[in-house]
């Protein structure tokens, strides 16, 4: 018998789209601690428009963007959408996931009902003037993050996505494994291969901040796959061991240094000299971890304020610091003398385009890269897992949450 609402894990008849669904919601009145911001509620199943796909979500990945969404800062995603005309006074997060194609809109040709898919994290208007003129969709004025800037993410029984967000699920992966690699994997892949001529090549030293995190775990493997030498920065012996098992050529424990944060004003000679001593000491640790006296040709950044000064100082002449976030703050100081006189590059990088997503899926599918799934939680853990991430108590690697899947191994 067809119903208007099904329990989590209860599969509707094929082709039947129920009226309602369970979703983990953030509402403005709950902004603050992620552990308190998420609540399971019943809402309407989103409608499917032209070029769109309704997906029965099996599992969802966990990323820091919905820590920000839960806190309501630095960007109030609900207020921004409502100013643009949205009606929903709530946010359904989740910017990656895996599931089954349940319904398709007009014009959808590349996926069919019943396909098992992995969902990528950004949306854009394929008819936009800049894209039609040849722009990378990730640089389009229409680009936005699904499950963060856009509503109806993967923390719900059903989600609606654009057709190009659907990628074939690698058969060797469980639903949970398939849900947790795309955002970090594709982001790291673009950072390391998308900015010619500064792309990772055989023999290249690469410094990777947060080596044991989701992004760092994927970056270590990608650098190794392309023949480079990844050196990871960590904050504990356990994370050092984890990175070495992934293939890190060397590891640096950042706890042994005290120069993190903003650069002292150049007028303060004593403080500036102390900062430079610590930065040079960190550089020596990089040489020791690498096993030779070479600077990183690429520095993979996402920490931001605490580490950018060191990254720019340490990066090789004509090398690149490529950054995709600012988890420690957004005001990163750069000593411009090192930037222009050593002709270095500071490059922003944001997620990945369709081709780059497919390339990371292929590397995962053929076993060249592991999804590094370290934690699988249940749907009712969405808030607590984001709180764990906010408190930096999460395990190394990537995390996933079961939605309609009933087992982490299936």
TrEMBL record:
* Hydrolase keyword on record: no
**InterPro entries recorded for this chain?**
ADH-like_C, ADH-like_N, Crot_CoA_red, ER, GroES-like_sf, NAD(P)-bd_dom_sf, Quin_OxRdtase/zeta-crystal_CS, Zinc-ADH_QOR/CCCR
Q: Which residues form a coiled coil?
A: none
What Pfam families is this protein classified in?
A: ADH_N, ADH_zinc_N
> Which PROSITE patterns does its entry note?
QOR_ZETA_CRYSTAL (PS01162)
**Gene Ontology molecular function, alphabetical:** crotonyl-CoA reductase activity; RNA binding; zinc ion binding
Q: SUPFAM superfamilies given for it?
A: GroES-like (SSF50129), NAD(P)-binding Rossmann-fold domains (SSF51735)
Tell me a GO cellular component.
cytoplasm
Q: Which UniProt keywords apply?
A: Acetylation, Cytoplasm, NADP, RNA-binding
Annotated Enoyl reductase (ER) domain ranges read 32-401
Localization, UniProt = Cytoplasm
Q: How does it assemble?
A: Homotetramer.
Q: What protein is this chain from?
A: Crotonyl-CoA carboxylase/reductase
Organism expressing this protein natively:
Nocardia pseudobrasiliensis
